[in-house]
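Example with several molecule types.
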Amino acid sequence: MKENPLSFQFKLKPEDFLPATEEEKQSQVIMRESVGFWKDGFRRLRKNKVAMVSLVVIILVMIFSFIVPSFYPYTYKEQIKGANNLAPMEYSQEEQARIDAGESVFPHIFGTDKMGRDYAIRVMMGSRISLLVGLIATAIILVIGSAYGSIAAFFGGTVDLVMMRIVDIIYTIPDILLIVLLSFTLKVPLTTLGESVPGFHWVNIVGENLISIFIVFALLYWVGMARMVRSQVLMLKESEYVTAARALGVGNGRIIKKHLLTNCIGTLIVTTTLQIPSSIFTESFLSFLGLGVAVPLPSLGSLASDAVNGMQTYPYLLFIPALLISLIILSFNLFGDGLRDAFDPKLKN
Amino acid sequence: MAKYIVKRIILAIVTIWAVATLTFFLMNLVPGGPFLSEKAISPQAQAALEAKYGLDKPMFQRYLNYVTSAAHGDFGDSLKQRGRTVMSIITMKFPVSARVGGLSVLVSLTLGIPLGCIAALKRGKVTDSVISVVATCGIAVPSFVICTVMMYFFGVKLGVLPTMGLETAKHYIMPVTALSFYPTAYIMRLMRSSMLDVLGQDYMRTARAKGLAGGKILFKHALRNAILPVVTYVGPMLAYTITGSFVVEKIFVIPGLGGEFIKAINGRDYTLIMGTTIFLATLVIVMNVIVDIIYKIVDPRIKLK
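Resulting structure tokens for the full complex:
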């Protein structure tokens, strides 16, 4: 067939249909892997030295409070005879006699308190309680706050108005009043629940006070989280993908769960991490006022509170829990700041 | 503006009523009562006491009585402190807490705002790092830790500052320092981040390009825009601080409203609890309205509706 010289047709030759050589294939390979949201965030987080150091501190404190007590030779409520108010690394007369006899006695690293209980294990248990309260309370706050905030923002209008007024009211009632009243109210039902209802025996072991603290957190402290999530969702619900989802007939609950909350996950992570230290802060403050965990269970706040009276003679009993609680709160705060720097899209530059 | 204020006042009254109602029923539903803790009290005497204060009536009746008299400004007598009205207790204790709290808010504003600005202006330099470290530590240390550590060093070890009461100016140093620690650190951080935000704006470059003096740019363009988050934080904070911190008042034995409130809750002094709660709620709400109005003054673009 004769070729038309003015034709724009491609001049295809049979060679063009041969398989590509290795060299040609190589040129098609994308050299850099595409970086997703999580990978990008973690890469930036790993570069942040302060955040990594605080993560290490958090892990160390967790080992110290959750694992070490299980093989520690003393328990937090064991009262050692004749070993009252020992200074750090000091032995009681009886223990000294045993050491002289050739036995090995585990030292009281932080001394003992006025009841003769080893202080190191009490501090460990105290930080365990404080961490537990911080983590569990934050989980409760996260669930309630994000559900409440997203529902208020998503439905808007009267629903939003009424729901936010409720938030204002909860915000205005002094929290200390609700805490005291609730812990009194909950004490009796919780005790009977633990004693009589099978399957709820754990209530007595954990302690009614601790559970009422969780309930108080669940009832009161989610308001900040709710406000935060609400402002995010108000912005996100105008996005095209929400309209698209609605056009496809997706239900409201699924839009909130799958589209809205997933898209503010960065803010949620950061707010949650910063909520942990503030929960620990509140718990220690409550325990300091005598409204927190029940004796003999220690928390860092109640340990510090007990030590205030003997401050002149035994200052270390005060300083150890005080220092530890500040360290825990500080490292959670710094880690949260690092997370925010890594995951908040607004701070990318 | 006037319409807005009227609307806010109506909303405030509704909120206060809701808070009062909620507190009233919650408080009365909790087991225990004001006269149970007193020793050696005969059943007749207790019944007489309850009749005197109207506690023998049904709860809803009591609620109606309370709301009507409270609406007329009568908050009743204290159940535990015989012969004193709730109003007289609040007017006696509040000034004490307000002095300590007001001073500490003043301290945290005068320290926090300039330091936060300096940190933002010297971003990345040594000054910034030092201020940021101090601010982060300040947020991490609970107030009871600061109180007790200060008490140990200045009160017990060195003996330079008195540890209890509020007689002289020296007595104020430790409580005010302890109370202003957290807000100062918080304001520093807020101020730094919002200042950094503002410094990156286009109008800052325009202002510099116009050749405006550094001071004028800083105060008129940067500070005025950057101070809004601080205003939001300080409003409710002021309300909570001047009504007394429970921890600081407990540690330094200050006869303020915070300690009185704890005592009232523990002793179920119903009328005093109600009075103090309503007082605190009113303060918080008023502060929020004031914050909104200050907003409007600082940033005329904001529309109050």
